[in-house]
Amino acid sequence: MTTRSLTRWEPWTDLLSLQDQVNRLFESTFGGTPRPALLATEFMPPVDVIRDQTAVTVRVDLPGMKKEDLDISVVNNHLFVRGTKKHETETEEKDVHRRERFFGTFERVVDLPAPVEVDKITAKFEDGVLSIACPIREEARPRQITVAVN
Amino acid sequence: MNTTTQSPETTVTKREPNGQVPFERYVQPRASVFGAQDAVTIELEMPGVVKDKVEITVEQDELTITGYRQVEDYSKHEVLHQERVPFNYRRSFVLSETIDSGKIQANLENGVLKLTLPKAETAKPRKIAVQ
User: pLDDT class for B104, splitting at 50, 70, 90?
Assistant: First the structure.
């Protein structure tokens, strides 16, 4: 596995998150209702990590997040994505019928599978999806070697 | 189909003659529901959905929201880790009689769909002055 779930290991977070994901899959099949958010202060947004020959791309679902509340950094070829998702003021604590959305802080760490050009990392945030492109360093890219035949 | 909300952000669901929607995989989006005296607000988390890929319908007293997710093409990549669910979103709510379903408004921002459901004038609390 290339992705560490969280730097601070909290067994319940992983377990509840898994339970939550399983529940959501079953509920979507059988028409139930998702459970309310269990851990409102710390949440774990889902992450995809893909690569091709030239880049590693990391995508994180962060609906309702604001760009300025995101913090992305690279230390020793570990990519850190941190942020704080804030409540919208107008809907806070007033006549709540159902609350399933998560708010609070999160941190995800991805062990990048190849050395990357830290200065050339680009990030964009569109429709609630954060996409980070990390170009792989030239010397770490696979290359074809042609054997000269005399 | 009884009433259909129509705003620039939404389109109307096309259903088969028997009322069935062609089979696709859906996941229920997370939702928060808040209600004030004159309107109810529903917030749905639908990351990866653009506004012309949202369908909102009202049939009898059932409000149904469908969001078609833009799924990235991973076929030319090596997938090292995958947690994001590449399914579309769908969720239904039963509307109270107090909601004026013709005045539902929808707004999509950063993957969160916010619906405002105003209460019908007759359902709003009112003070009656004693003569």
Answer: very high
Reported ipTM: the value is: 0.74
Cα three-residue angle A132-B31-A64, rounded to 5 degrees: 30
Give the global pTM: 0.73
Q: What angle do CA B116, B118, B119 make, to 5 degrees?
A: 145
Say whether both A25 and A49 belong to one domain. no
pLDDT at position B19, please?
A: 44
CA distance, residue A109 to nearest chain B CA (Å): 12
Under an 8 A CB cutoff, do A98 and B31 touch? Answer: yes
Is B3 among the domain residues?
A: no
Q: Which regions of chain A are under pLDDT 50? A: 1-9, 30-33, 36-40
Say whether B45 and A63 touch across the interface (CB within 8 A): yes
Burial track B8-26 (b if 16+ CB lie within 10 A, e otherwise): eebbeeeeeeeeeeeeeeb
Number of CB pairs < 8 Å for A and B? 127
Residues A52 and A74 in one domain: yes
Interchain proximity A101–B34, CB inside 8 Å: no
Q: Cβ of A48 and B83 within 8 Å? A: yes
Structural domain boundaries enclosing B56: 35-70+81-120
Whether residue A83 sits in one domain with residue A56: yes
Residue A5 is assigned to a structural domain of this protein: no
Whether A117 maps to a domain, the answer reads yes
- Is the same domain home to A31 and A53? no
Q: Which residue of B has its CA nearest to A25?
A: B27
